[in-house]
Write a structure and sequence with these properties.
Strand content: 25-35%
Radius of gyration: 16 Å
Strand order of the largest sheet: 6-4-3-5-7-2-1-9-8
Largest sheet: 9 strands, mixed
Number of strands: 9
Low-confidence stretches: none
Distance between the termini: 37 Å
CATH topology: Beta Polymerase, domain 2
CATH class: Alpha Beta
Number of domains: 1
Length: 176
């Protein structure tokens, strides 16, 4: 499923989100390459998002080793894991073949990874208020503002060299 198809399905299912991360940077014409998509949501919407993602054929990833990923095989198990672990984010992937509690990494479509973040330094409603609307002929969605993307990047305690490049790009967009 392409990112556009995913977003179209999420909108059709009534999921309210704001695109953040590398995909948001790409929407501002950054040269950054990313395969996953990061979406900010309200914590109140997590259960609905889990149900939608499982209907779309995705599974929640709970941990990853060098060779396998642990996944929840059902929406109910995923909701229970999120409630128990309180992770602040949830990563979903599409799995080829039968879904078991552990899946070999080569059975996972890495490009299908979708990260929903619901405990950010900027509340999802604030991100929505400041967001820019992207209008395509058959899809409309929100992408975080440049200022909010900068604040999200600056708040990371584990900033990478790519994050620093992203900050330079975003600040240049603002003329800083």
């Amino acid at each position: 499923m392409t990112h556009k198809e995913l977003l179209t399905n999420l909108v059709a299912e009534g999921v309210e989100f704001v695109v953040i991360g590398g995909t948001a940077l790409r929407l501002y014409n950054s040269p950054r390459v990313t395969h996953d998509i990061d979406l900010a949501i309200r914590a109140l919407d997590v259960d609905h998002v889990v149900d939608v993602m499982y209907r779309l054929g995705y599974c929640l990833v709970t941990s990853v080793t060098e060779t396998h990923a642990a996944v929840c095989s059902s929406a109910a198990a995923a909701r229970a894991w999120i409630e128990r672990e309180s992770p602040g984010s949830a990563s979903f992937v599409m799995v080829a073949g039968e879904v078991a509690s552990e899946v070999p990494l080569d059975h996972i479509d890495v490009a299908s990874q979708v990260d929903f973040l619901f405990e950010l330094t900027i509340p999802a409603m604030h991100l929505r208020k400041n967001a820019r609307r992207i209008e395509l002929p058959d899809l409309s969605f929100l992408v975080a503002s440049v200022d909010d993307l900068i604040r999200l990047k600056e708040a990371r305690s584990d900033r990478s060299a790519a994050d620093e490049d992203d900050l330079r790009f975003l600040r240049a967009l603002k003329g800083e």
